[in-house]
């Protein structure tokens, strides 16, 4: 789908879709599982009719959501890397580092436009609306990060809102789109949405913790990249509630690198890491509960996919890298 | 009665005073078309910018073209003066207000960035919305029996609101592409003011472009017409493809007229053609009529760009070298040079060296002057302008005066794109 007429654009666009650098494909995995979890099997009476065609066409369309979601996600990565002057992404040179900012902006635009065309082809304007809103949220989240005031940066509410926009909106709205394509009711669509939203938030919160703890449970073994870039995440925000003096340290983060060590000290004394984990577990549980509230089914495939979705809510918490 | 080419563009402020313009035009109702001298407006023109070149319709017409195409009017209704822009001026300001409301963002910095080019004074000529609003009226199918029952207020009808939506979406897509293009080109100015990237930085410009695009998509979805969504999504893809074609072409491609016309279609004409088609589809028109609307937009867009290319060389004078020459200085090879290269193969080498040695620009201009490049480009532009006018002429007959007037205005636009000289 990302093959382009113009060769240079083609190399740019497919850069992150090549084998080996396509990432964990976390989002498509969730969406495909969700598609099965919401699968409404035709009854025996209808089996005589070309029962294979309708379900498989639906599946193709739902896969389309997964593809579109990945394109939007990669497009936002390309633009973000340009905005952040990033050097590496997914273990290789970032596209802007390798080919320049211009082609990265263009490649991002190209992927977005291909996503729009693919969206249009689904012929479902509510789905178009949902995923267009996602793009808007991604932009808003990135801008919130770039342009916040000091008060905003110290606010947990602002942080959760930004995290929703930057991380959870894509997953929640694409889950909802999957449900809508399957002709599910508004209630079921909302359950799918809640799953995606809470899973996304849980994921990001643990991501924040791991940036401090890395592969070890103790502090300071993580990459510390957030705090080194002056990005204040949940653990620090919680710690600031316990130790107001941490605010001053945090304001000076970028001016004086030794402040990072001071901040880490406070963090170690505080319950910041623990409270963040607890919040993540809360959201993971909400996600699992959403799956549990889906309409009953006898179908083994459907049940298995739902168990897998619940299993994911455990894995986002227990992962340590 | 022959339809006279309207006098050259007078700014819309003047035309609010219709009697003034009527007086002006009465003296020009001749059966022979001659170059006319218009009234140039004292206010600074609001430029419509295409790839760094600004033009305005507001100056006197020079040049010695003849009209190849005259539109016969069958009725004996006395003609009013016809300024396409004033026909839709009120609706345009409705549209501008709506646009400003549509690009409001939660995050203040994003809001200032997104609305940067929608503020009063820098919203540009609104060329595209004008075309689309005229097209909407030109395709207005009025059912006489229902006339009494339905609201006579066309502007507020639901269809009209939706068609205005196409115009708004088109403007957002257009501005989004301008924002990204300026980042790509490291541009300093746009529409007479600092470019957004120059004023606020590349990052917020990239973000603002993305934001406008997403707003456009949301607005598109709200129209609940998947074919229209598809058309305008394709436009976005074409804009990107066209820009990339320009950035990454091989030497052979850069020397090819076919490649150039394809790129021009993608970069300039696709937006106009597909949005015209979308307006037709929303109006429930047949595929044939939709195709005529498409052909109008496409040919108008191509004619516009070709004249733009010429003006970059000739500027406000018919002679060479008085234009801004910005294309050729940036190594962008446009139609006049491509034609000249057919006559003088040695020009190819000169053109390859353009960016290495600025004196090559002068050499290239010499060749251009000796060649028929400028003339052939104008001729090609006129061909396309005629095709656009013919598309309007092929629309289904109508008795409705508003419809007829809008169609005349659309045809008038095909003349104006050719005769403008800056």
UniProtKB/TrEMBL annotation, chain A:
Its cofactor is Mg(2+). Gene3D superfamilies: Farnesyl Diphosphate Synthase. It comes from the Eukaryota. GO terms for molecular function: metal ion binding; prenyltransferase activity. One of its GO terms (cellular component) is mitochondrion. Keywords: Isoprene biosynthesis, Magnesium, Metal-binding, Mitochondrion, Transferase. It holds the Pfam family polyprenyl_synt. GO terms for biological process: isoprenoid biosynthetic process; quinone biosynthetic process. It is found in: Mitochondrion. Belongs to the FPP/GGPP synthase family. This is Geranyl diphosphate synthase.
TrEMBL record, chain B:
Pfam families: polyprenyl_synt. Keywords: Isoprene biosynthesis, Magnesium, Metal-binding, Mitochondrion, Transferase. GO terms for biological process: isoprenoid biosynthetic process; quinone biosynthetic process. SUPFAM superfamilies: Terpenoid synthases. CDD domains: Trans_IPPS_HT. One of its GO terms (cellular component) is mitochondrion. InterPro entries: Isoprenoid_synthase_dom_sf, Polyprenyl_synt, Polyprenyl_synt_CS. One of its GO terms (molecular function) is prenyltransferase activity. It is found in: Mitochondrion. Its cofactor is Mg(2+). Gene3D superfamilies: Farnesyl Diphosphate Synthase. It comes from the Eukaryota. Transmembrane segments: none annotated. Belongs to the FPP/GGPP synthase family. This is Geranyl diphosphate synthase. It comes from Eruca vesicaria subsp. sativa (Garden rocket).
């Amino acid at each position: 789908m990302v093959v382009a007429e113009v060769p240079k654009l083609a190399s740019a666009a497919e850069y992150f879709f090549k084998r080996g650098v396509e990432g964990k494909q976390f989002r498509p995995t969730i969406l495909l599982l969700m598609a099965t979890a919401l699968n409404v099997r035709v009854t025996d009476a209808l089996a005589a009719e070309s029962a294979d065609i309708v379900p498989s066409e639906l599946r193709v369309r739902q896969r389309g959501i997964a593809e579109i979601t990945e394109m939007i996600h990669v497009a936002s990565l390309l633009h973000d890397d340009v905005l952040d002057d990033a050097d590496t992404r997914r273990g290789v040179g970032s596209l802007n580092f390798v080919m320049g900012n211009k082609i990265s902006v263009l490649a991002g635009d190209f992927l977005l436009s291909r996503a729009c065309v693919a969206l249009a082809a689904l012929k479902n304007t509510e789905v178009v609306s949902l995923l267009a809103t996602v793009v808007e949220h991604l932009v808003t989240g990135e801008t919130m990060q770039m342009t916040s005031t000091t008060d905003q940066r110290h606010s947990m509410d602002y942080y959760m809102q930004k995290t929703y926009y930057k991380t959870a909106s894509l997953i929640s709205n694409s889950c909802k789109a999957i449900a809508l394509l399957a002709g599910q009711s508004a209630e079921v669509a909302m359950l799918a949405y809640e799953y995606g939203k809470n899973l996304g938030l849980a994921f990001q919160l643990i991501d924040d913790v791991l940036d401090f703890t890395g592969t070890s449970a103790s502090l300071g073994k993580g990459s510390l990249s957030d705090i080194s870039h002056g990005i204040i995440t949940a653990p620090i925000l919680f710690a600031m509630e316990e130790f107001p003096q941490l605010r001053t340290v945090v304001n000076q983060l970028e001016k004086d690198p030794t402040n990072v060590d001071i901040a880490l000290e406070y963090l170690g004394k505080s319950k910041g890491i623990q409270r963040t984990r607890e919040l993540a577990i809360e959201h993971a549980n909400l996600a699992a509960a959403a799956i549990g509230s889906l309409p009953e089914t006898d179908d083994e495939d459907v049940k298995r996919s739902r168990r897998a979705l619940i299993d994911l809510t455990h894995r986002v918490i227990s992962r340590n890298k | 009665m022959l339809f006279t080419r309207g006098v050259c563009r007078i700014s819309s402020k003047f035309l609010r005073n219709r009697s003034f313009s009527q007086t002006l035009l009465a003296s020009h109702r001749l059966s022979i078309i001659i170059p006319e001298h218009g009234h140039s407006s004292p206010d600074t023109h609001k430029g419509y910018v295409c790839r760094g070149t600004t033009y305005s319709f507001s100056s006197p017409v020079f040049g010695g073209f003849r009209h190849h195409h005259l539109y016969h009017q069958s009725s004996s209704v006395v003609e009013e003066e016809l300024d396409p822009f004033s026909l839709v001026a009120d609706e345009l300001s409705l549209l501008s207000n709506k646009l400003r409301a549509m690009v409001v963002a939660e995050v203040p910095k994003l809001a200032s960035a997104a609305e940067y080019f929608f503020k009063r004074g820098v919203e540009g000529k609104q060329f595209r919305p004008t075309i689309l609003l005229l097209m909407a009226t030109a395709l207005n199918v009025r059912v006489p029996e229902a006339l009494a029952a339905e609201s006579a207020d066309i502007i507020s009808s639901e269809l009209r609101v939706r068609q205005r939506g196409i115009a708004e979406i088109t403007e957002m897509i257009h501005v989004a592409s301008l924002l990204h293009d300026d980042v790509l080109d490291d541009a300093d100015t746009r529409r007479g003011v600092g470019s957004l990237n120059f004023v606020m930085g590349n990052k917020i410009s990239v973000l603002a472009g993305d934001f406008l695009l997403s707003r456009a998509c949301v607005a598109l979805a709200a129209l609940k017409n998947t074919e229209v969504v598809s058309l305008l999504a394709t436009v976005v893809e074409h804009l990107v493809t066209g820009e990339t074609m320009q950035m990454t072409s091989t030497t052979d491609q850069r020397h090819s007229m076919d490649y150039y016309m394809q790129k021009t279609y993608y970069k300039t004409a696709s937006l106009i053609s597909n949005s015209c088609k979308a307006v037709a589809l929303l109006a429930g028109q047949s595929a044939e009529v939709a195709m005529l609307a498409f052909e109008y937009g496409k040919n108008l867009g191509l004619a516009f760009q070709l004249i733009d290319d010429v003006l970059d060389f000739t500027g406000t004078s018919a002679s060479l070298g008085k234009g801004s020459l910005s294309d050729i200085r940036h190594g962008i090879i446009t139609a006049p040079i491509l034609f000249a290269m057919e006559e003088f193969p040695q020009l190819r080498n000169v053109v390859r060296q353009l960016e290495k040695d600025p004196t090559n620009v002068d050499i290239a201009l010499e060749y251009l002057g000796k060649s028929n490049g400028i003339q052939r480009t104008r001729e090609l532009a006129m061909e396309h302008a005629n095709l656009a006018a013919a598309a309007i002429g092929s629309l289904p007959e109508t008795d409705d005066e508003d419809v007829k007037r809008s169609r005349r205005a659309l045809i008038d636009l095909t003349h104006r794109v050719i005769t403008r000289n800056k």
